[in-house]
Amino acid sequence: MNFLKLSHLLNPLKINALSSSLPATKKISTTVMSNFYLNSLKLNAKASQLASTTKLPFSDADDKSNNERAENISRAMSYYLEKMAERESLMKFKTEEFEIGKRHLAKMMGENAETFTQDDINRSIEYLLPSGLFNKKARPFLKHPEDYYPKSKLAAFGSDGRPLHHLFYTGNPDFYQIIYELTQKYLNLNRLEDAMNLIKGRMKTIHKTDEADLNTRINLTGSVWIDRNKLNVKFNMKIDELSYNKFIIMLQKLAEHSLSKREETFIGQFIVPFEPPIKLSDIPALLKDETGRPYQELEVRQRTAIVKLKLYEGNGKIKIKAPEGNFNINFFDSLTQREQLLFPFKVVDKINKFDIEMEVNNGGMSCLSKAARYAISKALCCFVSADSIEKLRLAGLLTSDSRPKERKKPGQEGARRRYTWKKR
Amino acid sequence: MSLARNLNKILSLRSLAAQNRLFNLNNNLINKSLLINSVQKRYLSNEQEPKIEIKISQKAVPHFFRCSVNDPLKHNSVHLNKFYKVDEKDLKVIDPFQECLTREHYAEFKAFNETALMIRQPAIEVIDYIKKLDLSLPAYRFVLYGNENGTGKRSTLLHLLHYCQKDNWLLIHLPNWSAVLRRSKESQPSTYKEGRLDTPIDAALFLKRFSVQNNKLLKELNLKTTKKYNWSNRDSSPEGTPLLDLIEYANTRIKYASDICGAIIREIKFQTNSNKYKVFVAVDQVNSFFGPTRLKRADKSEIKVDDITIARNFKKLLKNDWCNSVVVSTIGSVGVILPAPDRRTKFYDTSISIQNRRRVPCSLHYEGPLTPAHLLKKEGFYYLEPFIPIEVPSYSDSELLTHYEYYRDRNWLQSEDALTDDGREEIKFLSGNNPREFMRVCQTI
Amino acid sequence: MLNLTKNLPIIINKLTTPQSQKLLKFTSNIHSTAGNRQNDQNLKTSVVPQKSKIINPLKHEDFFQINELVKLEDLFKARCHYGHHHGLRCPWMNEFIFGTRITTDIIDLDQTIPLMKRALNFIAHIAFRKGVILFITRYAQHIPLIEQSALEVGEYSHCKPWRNGTFTDSTRRFGSVIRLPDLCIFFHTHEKLNEAHGALSETAKMLIPTVAICDSDSDPSQITYPIPANDDSLVSQQLYTRLIKEVIIKAKKKRQELEEQGYVIQYE
């Protein structure tokens, strides 16, 4: 026993001696440091016991039980440190490999290995091993291991194994910490409001206060709540859809509080300025006819239907060029299909102010009419103001229907239609 | 739902008819408020309110869509795009069996309690021509056609019939002719010549219509046969029999109706040289004379148009070997007789995959181009040549506006949204300026 | 887990009153064995302070003076005696119920007090030995209070939806070996309506001792230190959190003071 204890005592001394013997410029590698830390921890636990033993004689059995407890407590930390040490050794090995590889590559390219940078490596690898693989991640590369090995996490607990965060056991402490702060802030505001009301009630008897001056609620116009993905990136955590929705509801509740301006900085973290999804810069400019008449050209495909549209300013003439012949709006038999064409014009309030020239091909009637609707509303964007474009977007006219054609099933005439049933 | 709406329309019209005083009650808001005030005054106060004021307001606003001249003889280009009223007595003479227009039209006439036709450019054009014609020359042929269906060929024809009836013309009217060739009501082999087909009921119907349309004129002229006709071994009519008697004879002996029909046509055609009368022939769907038929003999051999007795006789009217006559005919897709759809016929093109299938053109209706060359084909074109083609276009903006205002005046548009300018533009967009589509869109509102 | 609580009152009923009182006092310190039971005065005399400052907290009957903390009046004022509708009663709770008034169960506070003292004592001992204490509840109204009080005393809380395997499969859940809590305190034993909290069975599996406030509708059979009392009203929850906070702080302070004074804490 004594020998063991002595050896343990000596261990850190040795390391210290080593470190002192080394020149000051060279750092001790992190592996050594972590090993040192690990050992010193164990030793510290035992040193205290040693101190006690020096003063009082203790039975061996008692010593053992105490030792076990001490070890149990720091097991989490020791495991973590072991893992760290493993990783460090691996990284050391890999860096050495990288250095050698770099030197070889420089030699192959006939350049100086000392001044060989990462850009040079990339260039030379692209030259030596040209790859046409579509995914860039699958192409050959040579990089420092720190760049592509997953980074080690910081320990979430101290040396005695006690977690550092009070919500550690929930599994997502960062996110729940925000929620915790949010609730506490809301409750504080409630308390404050109660107190203020109480004071106000007493003040009113003396003189009236102007309530218009008290602009205490936060103004959220022109902004939206942060996106889930952005939130994940910003706070470096993982949130599922359900808890995100709950979180937004809670934020909304805080923002609607009558004193929410006091928590402006907190709420400000979760606000992003509203960006219109359709940018005016993306809309193409108007084309011009030989006669100088402005028009817009488009081709829209939906399922099998193809619609080629030309939209002119005019007075409501419609020409539909189908394989069967030339038609006006009566090409569409039913009123519902004609209303599809009408709808975008109605939204922007410009019925019979545009001429339509359409070339239709393939597709069924309802599909064609929907494709025409999408084409018209897209082309209309070039003619109308930004407000009207927003109206079109809100009406859902600027989203294309991306559903593909449903496949034909065996044993059936089409996707859904069955063969006519005959009684033998 | 639609029934309820229609009932509402009819009821409102009834109340309209009953209370002429409150003519404008539902029409526009300003008058409404005025009227309500007057009504309130009338019922609430003891003083009696003079009713003259309302009458003045009714007369003071003449409707711009109505033509003050209801006599078609006086119609000219000044009265274009306006509605004129047809007397019920006249209509009963011109169109006794309500065959000239579609069923929808007659339903509207019934609901509106009046028959109003729009004076349109093609009708005025033909009337102008007729006024200026030299009738001593061989028969003039007009062909009305449109680029779409439902542009108003038959209502133009009705307008022309009305004009000629007022101008004391002898009318020979063949409405809905293609129906006979599709499926005659009764058919029997001819006794006159073998291989021909008699359609006695259709012939009798024609004779009845003919007698009603020209009863007054025939009595005045007192036309008589110039030849002895043998209907069978026993029955015959001697020379000098009045035509009206012949028609009555046909009513009693329907068996001989188609032969009598031929005789009458022959007599009329022969006696035009006397310059006593003028003949106006109106044929609907004339292109059916130059195509196949759906009728079949007992041995399932096909029957051509020339094999049907009355068709053969009517076809003679279209020739230009007689004078003092005008032939106005329409051509349309209804006249194109396609082979009867079999029970196994699929109405979609099976060669296209099912997702892309549209209704096959020509399976039920003719859907090709509607020009005279396409519809009459070579045979008909040469048969009618020389003829004057007259296009009946779809509505212009002003025509559509007058029609809209007319409907509005008749309280036919019940929805409040339809009464706004935007609503009118929407209806215009959805109908594509086509009169028939316009009518149908307005029915649902 | 042994169901100590279930058998305890029966024994008391059978014994005579002075004996039962004596037993109750000793039960407040269950870590002490029957042989080592000694009075407070005797213990002090046996230890020789001059020679060495050795303390075995388990040998004291009331090391943290908890008897003074818990009062019947406080419990009564905080409405701790209200139970649920008698139809909701869990049969294991029959012993702790005083009676039923207007279809509502009334909890016998005379039984609550010794059990509560015992539980608080246990909490204090764990806190004294620097154990990890986890506060658990799923009652939405109390969550901010309980999270806040856990933070104040430097302990941990879990008031979020329970994911199965948090204790039993902790290595995979947290990505590394972690130290599990040494004590779980349940302020409310239901997760959803009438459904036991998922942590209850997991603590039992992982041999983690539990303290829980058991209302008349909750099942105390899997709990080491049940406290029969009302768990729904905020006022009573405030009382419990106040007591527990006080006890934990007291224990931690005591530890610090003793270490500063150079005492050696020794168990057995």
Describe this structure in words.
The complex is a heterotrimer of chains A (424), B (445) and C (268). Helices cover 49% and strands 10% of the residues of chain A. Chain A is of the alpha+beta class. The model of chain A is unreliable at 1-71 (pLDDT under 50). Chain B is α/β, with parallel strands linked by helices. Chain B has helices at 2-18, 29-44, 52-60, 88-94, 103-112, 121-132, 153-166, 178-182, 200-221, 243-252, 257-271, 309-317, 372-384, 397-409, 421-431, 435-444; strands spanning 82-86, 115-119, 140-145, 170-174, 188-189, 197-198, 229-230, 236-237, 279-283, 325-330, 388-391. The N and C termini of chain B lie close together (12 Å). In chain C, helix 5 (109-128) runs parallel beside helix 9 (234-260) and helix 6 packs parallel to helix 9. Chain C is built from nine helices and twelve strands. Chain C has helices spanning 4-14, 17-27, 40-46, 72-77, 109-128, 143-152, 170-174, 198-205, 234-260, and strands spanning 54-55, 82-85, 97-101, 104-107, 133-136, 156-158, 183-186, 190-192, 195-196, 210-214, 225-228, 264-265. A five-stranded parallel sheet of chain C has the order 6-5-7-10-11, sandwiched between helices. Chain C is an alpha/beta fold and 268 residues long. Residues 1-50 of chain C have low confidence and may be disordered. The A-C interface holds A 52, 55-56, 62, 73, 75-76, 79-80, 83, 153, 156-157, 160-163, 166-172, 176, 180, 183-184, 187 and C 52, 54, 130, 132, 134, 143-144, 147-148, 150-151, 154-160, 163, 166, 173-179, 181, 264, 268. Chain A: Keywords: Ribonucleoprotein, Ribosomal protein. Chain A: GO terms for molecular function: RNA binding; structural constituent of ribosome.
- Outline the biggest β-sheet of chain C: 5 strands, parallel
**Quaternary class:** heterotrimer
Task: Report the mean per-residue pLDDT of chain A as an integer.
Answer: 79
Largest sheet of chain A, in brief, is:
6 strands, mixed
| Strand order in the sheet with the most strands of chain C | 6-5-7-10-11
Shape category of chain A: extended
Shape of chain C: globular
From N to C, what is the helix and strand string of chain C? HHHEHEEEHEHEHEEEHEEHE
CATH-derived topology of chain C? Rossmann fold
CATH class of chain C: Alpha Beta
The CATH homologous superfamily of chain C is termed: Glucose-6-phosphate isomerase like protein, domain 1
**Biggest interface between chains:** A-C, 29 and 30 residues
CATH class of the largest domain in chain A: Alpha Beta
CATH architecture of the largest domain in chain A: 2-Layer Sandwich
Mean pLDDT of chain C: 80
Specify the number of helices of chain C: 9
List the uncertain runs of chain A: 1-71
How much beta of chain A, percentage-wise? 5-15%
What is the count of DSSP helices of chain A, taking H or I runs of 4+ residues? 13
Uncertain stretches of chain C: 1-50
Protein name (chain B): Small ribosomal subunit protein mS29
Pfam families (chain B): DAP3 (PF10236)
InterPro entries (chain B): Ribosomal_mS29, Ribosomal_mS29_met
Organism (chain B): Brachionus calyciflorus
